[in-house]
Amino acid sequence: MSRIFASKDFLAGGLYMAFGLLGLWLGRNLDAGTASAMEAGYFPRLVCALLVAIGAALAAMSLFRAGEIPERGRWRPLVFVTLSCLAFALLLHPLGLVPTMLVSILLACFASGHIRPIPFVLLCLALVVAIVGIFVLALRIQIPLWPAL
User: Fold this and answer.
1) Dihedrals phi, psi of 33, to nearest 5 degrees
2) What contacts 2, CB < 8 A, 6 or more positions away?
3) pLDDT at position 49
4) Is the separation of the CB atoms in 66 and 8 below 8 Å?
5) Cβ proximity of 58 and 20 under 8 Å
6) Which residues, in sequence order, are CB contacts of 89 under 8 Å at separation 6+?
7) CA 54 vs CA 18, 115, 117, 125: distances in Å
């Protein structure tokens, strides 16, 4: 029975639920509004509620099938994915979106331990085009693309 609770799926579901509940608690004072008149807390609550629901479904499904136990001692992915997120948060304002994306993607690729140049360049190109297209062009969010001179 303890093997079920140590499976990757159960632990991931628990982590999703924990992040979702934390987000709901942190945003408890934000006004949500309605779907037609969204306020500051509407989208964060929606995303956090989805995280809780997906986490609960993942954890529940893991109880009905044997899952894979997480490996121990694999710190490289955790460190580099965390560094990638921190780099994005800290570099977006001074560097702009495009250079920050390139740094974040490079750091995230280091998590695997080997980077092949051609797939890396294609990944960077696809992600930068997609992110700029979605957030800057389609949603018209005011994000600087390059460093301010």
Assistant:
1) 75, -155
2) none
3) 95
4) no
5) no
6) none
7) 11, 31, 35, 30
Cβ-in-10-Å burial (0-12, 13-18, 19+) of 101 comes to buried
Calpha distance 115→79 (Å, rounded): 16
**First-to-final CA distance of the chain:** 60
pLDDT tens-digit map of 46-70: 999 999 999 999 999 988 877 677 6
Whether the Cβ atoms of residue 59 and residue 13 lie closer than 8 Å to each other: yes
* Spatial CB neighbours of 76, under 8 Å, sequence gap ≥ 6: 110, 111, 113
* Distance (Å, whole) CA 143 – CA 132: 9
Contacts of 11 (CB under 8 A, 6+ apart): 70
Q: How much is the pTM?
A: 0.64
Encoded tokens for 69: 């136990």
